[in-house]
Design goal:
The chain is an alpha+beta fold. It folds into two domains: 40 residues, no CATH class; 151 residues, N-terminal domain of MutM-like DNA repair proteins. It contains six helices and twelve strands. Strands 5, 6, 7, 8, 9, 10, 11 and 12 form an eight-stranded antiparallel β-sheet that branches. A two-stranded antiparallel sheet has the order 1-2. Strands 3-4 form a two-stranded antiparallel ribbon. A hairpin with a 2-residue loop joins strand 5 and strand 6. It is elongated and about 65 Å long. The N and C termini lie far apart (43 Å).
């Protein structure tokens, strides 16, 4: 459309910048060849009413680092860190979940936990190229938040931590005792004062 101030611009600009919460709107739509006019009021859901919050400038990013695997909860703010063309540059599974969360009817009580990056360490050899993987479970238990993942990982002192993902490679395995014993060294090596911010 042609904006009076900026000239030709994306229709998304009109939808995102002009209305404000509480203002009324009229829309013309076409259904089965028939034009209809609908009226409504712009509303915005609170961040705890959605699985993936849009923008969070007032809250520091939450994370959990286990053996060099860095997990976060997906937000629109994270995706926008990929730049102007984030919808093309960011991992497409994350873009899809964010863009279609209403259509997919994602449970707002369950957050999208994903592997955002891998810090090279003796525990993560061969995993460094992985990122943007949606975590579905750990050790056979479902994960719906960083707190869930921390609770599962904290309960395992020996044996394996098996991280289950939506996409390939499907699973990653770390030695639980090595994750616990190597945490302080990992934090020191990368200058990370805390391996979790929940």
């Amino acid at each position: 459309y042609r904006d009076s101030l900026y000239g030709p611009t994306s229709i998304g600009n009109l939808v995102r910048t002009r209305p404000h919460v509480g203002s009324s709107a009229k829309f013309k739509i076409s259904r089965d060849g028939n034009e209809m006019e609908l009226a409504g009021v712009y509303d915005r859901r609170a961040r705890d009413e959605v699985a993936i919050p849009t923008l969070q400038f007032d809250v520091a990013p939450r994370y959990l680092i286990l053996g060099g695997l860095v997990f976060q909860e997906l937000t629109g703010t994270y995706l926008q860190e990929w730049g102007d063309k984030w919808s093309e540059r960011a991992p497409q599974r994350l873009v899809q979940l964010f863009s279609f969360q209403q259509e997919m009817k994602l449970d707002p009580k369950k957050k999208i936990v994903f592997l955002s990056q891998v810090l090279p360490s003796s525990m993560t050899a061969g995993y460094q190229h992985l990122s943007g993987l949606v975590l579905t479970g750990c050790n056979g238990k479902p994960v719906g938040s960083l707190e869930d993942l921390a609770s599962i990982a904290d309960a395992v002192s020996a044996g394996d931590l098996v991280f289950e993902f939506m996409d390939d490679p499907g699973k990653l395995v770390l030695d639980a005792s090595e994750v616990k014993s190597g945490g302080a060294k990992l934090g020191k090596s990368y200058g990370i004062p805390a391996l979790r911010k929940l």
